[in-house]
Amino acid sequence: MTVKSSIPILIELTRRKSDKAAILLSQSNADYKQELEKLALLEDYRNHYGEQLEIKMSSGLNISIYNNYQTFLSNLNKAVMQQKHAVYCSLQIVENYRNEWLRYEKERLSFNTLNNRNQLVIRTNENKTEQKQNDELSSRAQQVKL
């Protein structure tokens, strides 16, 4: 008589959870890369604009244009800081999804190990039963011959 194990069901459920977590991890990685690209663009734009200000200052610049440049650079610096925060938050999301995926994978592997052990015990018991039956048949055959 064989007893059905619920372990394969648990393995399948954790595999599905792991797959979903992997998809979310992949999407969050893509979002993180986008945030990094935005940051790089903002920093490049800020640096370029700062260089333009230096060039114009060396050739002479009236105070209102200088103030406009300074205000714009200040706004760019704020945008860069906000984007750095967005990158940090995005990285935290990636780490959370990575940890979730790793947790499900660890769980799935644990269930696989339990299933393998369970199968080994079943095979061992079946082999013992078969050996016992063979021994009994041999014993009966020996008794019939005598």
Assembly type of the chains comes to single chain
Structural class: mainly alpha
Number of strands: 0
Average pLDDT? 91
> Tell me, what is the CATH class?
Mainly Alpha
Strand content: under 5%
- Compute the number of structural domains: 1
Helix content: over 70%
The biggest beta sheet is recorded as: none
Distance between the termini: 34 Å
Looking at the structure, the CATH topology is Helix Hairpins
User: Total number of helical segments?
Assistant: 2
Give me the Rg, rounded. 34 Å
The best one-word shape is: rod-shaped
H and E order: HH
* CATH architecture label name: Orthogonal Bundle
Unreliable segments (pLDDT under 50, ≥5 consecutive)?
none
Structure overview:
The chain has about 150 residues and is mainly α. It has a single domain (about 5-145), classed as Helix Hairpins, CATH 1.10.287. It contains 2 helices and no strands. The chain has helices at about 5-60, 65-145. Helix 1 packs antiparallel against helix 2. The two termini are about 35 Å apart. The model has no long low-confidence stretch (mean pLDDT about 90).
Strand and helix map with partners:
Elements: H1 7-58, H2 63-145
Helix pairs in contact: 1-2
What would a concise description of this structure say?
This protein is mainly alpha-helical and 146 residues long.
Kindly list the characteristics that best describe this protein.
mainly alpha; Helix Hairpins; 92% helix; 146 residues; 0% strand; 2 helices
